[in-house]
Amino acid sequence: MRRIAVSCSTWFVLVATTPLDVRAQESTPELSAALKTINGKDVQATIDFLTSRECAGRDTAQAGLDRAIGLVTERFERLGLESVSDSGNAFLAPWSVPVVDAAACSLELAGEGQAPSVWAVREDFVPAKGCPDGSVEGDLLFAGFSVSERKYHWDDFAKVDAKKRIVVALLGEPGDGKNKKFFEGSELTASASVLEKAKAAAEAGAVGLILCPSSAEESTLWLGSQVPVVSQSGRGGGGAPLPIPTVVVSLSVAESLLGEPADAVRERVVARGRTASEPLRTGRAKLAVAMEARQAPVANVLGRYRGRDPDLAGDIIVIGAHIDHIGVDDRGRICHGADDNAGGVAAVLEIAEAFATAKPATKRSIVFMAFTGEEKGLLGSKAYCKDPLIPIARTYAMINLDIIARGRKNAIEATLPPGKSAIDRLLPAASRLSGANLKIGDGGHEYFQRSDQYSFHEVGIPTVFFNEGATNEDYHQPSDTADKVLEDKVAAVAKVSCTLAFLLANTDIKGGLK
Predict the structure, then answer these.
(1) How far is CA 1 from the centre of its chain?
(2) How far apart are CA 121 and CA 123, in angstroms?
(3) Of 19, 136, 146, 207, which has the fewest CB atoms closer than 10 Å, so is most exposed?
(4) Residue 21's pLDDT is what?
């Protein structure tokens, strides 16, 4: 994409030559009151919730994202924002996404001389991401953690015959006997990944793999994070393909298979400091996996603050941020997405509360949007722009907040597309009137096509993209956590955005790109 050479000094030259001198604009008492409601403490509380274990990384089409959507919906309702949607939930704008999901899957324990135990998919077990279709049957073999790593001197298949068997193994990995929780300290290594476990079992001759949690918390996390998986191609949506049918079971099923509580088994294996592989007395199992491509319902969340001008109230200023992230990785680590993009959502909610509480008069309406599917290719914002609830022709401008909670403490980038609009002309005044003490640069252009404002830009809407201008070392990692965010910086960006939205909603500058 073409980099835009527009500096802050250029903005002020533009302002000085415009018919409407925005430098003369002053704050209103209502805007001042609105800005006073925005604070870092509330920002942090929102980020803490969105990065909680219950939200599980907010992957699109999964339960953790639904919990995050619930927070935004409840907040919009409590603030008294107007509905934009005519869906069953007043603030949801539904769309659908292609996923790969479990279809005809079964797991049955069939020990000799005993009645078979049949378990239900989703409730008792789920196929792991990347699981191939297949039907297998075999004797059960407990193989520790299904890890075979020479560098860690650990091989769960060294002294057992796994050929044509279904391996039962624990999730995670053992410590190394030197007061380390895992092989290399406090962080799981690649040996704990489902892919590496499946590879180790397959190389030992196993025909299937059953992975067991050792706590209720681990069980809930894994069962809720494997399916459905978004797949734009319609198949194979979740990471690298696994070599053999692989499922994750619930804590209760794990106990049935192991013949004792899984946490006790784990403690014993780790205490020994070596593998404890052995055939299981529970006998044989039948495992069948069949995945299907389907469309899953998803939704963006929208709430409107109504303008007061009879002619202009139908026009809108969009303030948006994506609420989704990338979920749980195949080691069972939550990718929390604090900077990407719980911080942006927190800012949008602060701005919504500022308008709803102080009620500053605006000519145009303001619509607050929390987008889903951004991490899958801007799918949620593209869906909205393709089928908008408010005509695109009535969308005056779009402000997007994405990755604003880290980086330089008192600086943010405002990335603008080619062409001039009211945003360029009003941004310096917004910075001044907000009192945010935030240096606003013009970088971050290399990321412009990777966030939701690009969907609006493609249909001709003037946009601005607030961002850090660089990705940090925790980008898309489990280490992007709430304790690392700069909550006061998020509040400052929210204040600038709030003021910019107020000015855009009231300006006489004709809309559109020039």
Answers:
(1) 26
(2) 6
(3) 19
(4) 44
User: According to the 3-state scheme, what is the secondary structure of 46-82?
Assistant: HHHHHCCCCCCCCECCCHHHHHHHHHHHHHHHHHCCE
Residues 6 or more apart from 329 whose CB is under 8 A from it? Answer: 193, 335, 478
Comparing 158-162, 237-241, 290-294, 426-430, which segment has the lowest mean pLDDT? 237-241
Angle at 354 between CA 348 and CA 357, to 5 degrees: 135
pLDDT of 8 higher than 60: no
Report the alpha-carbon angle 292-296-300, nearest 5. Answer: 160
DSSP H or E stretch at residue 386: helix 379-386
Q: What is the mean pLDDT of the chain?
A: 90
Query: How confident is residue 114, by pLDDT bands cut at 50, 70 and 90?
Result: low
Q: Which amino acid is at 229?
A: V
Contact in structure between 472 and 404 (CB atoms under 8 Å): no
| Residue 500 DSSP one-character state | H
Nearest to 145 by CA among 110, 91, 189, 107: 189
Contact between residue 287 and residue 137 where contact means Cβ atoms under 8 Å apart:
yes
Could you tell me the two tokens for 432? 């001044």
Burial (CB count within 10 angstroms: exposed 0-12, middle 13-18, buried 19+), residue 483: exposed
Q: What is the CA angle 313-319-321, rounded to 5?
A: 155
